[in-house]
Amino acid sequence: MLELKQVRAGYGAINVLWDVSLGAAAGKLTTIIGPNGAGKTTLLRAVMGLLPVTHGDIALNGKPLAGTPTWGMAALSVAMIPEGRMTFRDMNVEENLIMGAFPKAHRGHVAARLEEAYAMFPRLRERRRQLAGSLSGGEAQMLAMARGLMSDPKLLIIDEPSLGLAPLVVNELFEILARLKDGVRTIILVEQNTQRAVGVADHVYLMQSGKVVLSQAAEEVDLEHLHALYFAH
Question: Would the pTM of this model clear 0.85, i.e. be above it?
Answer without folding.
Answer: yes
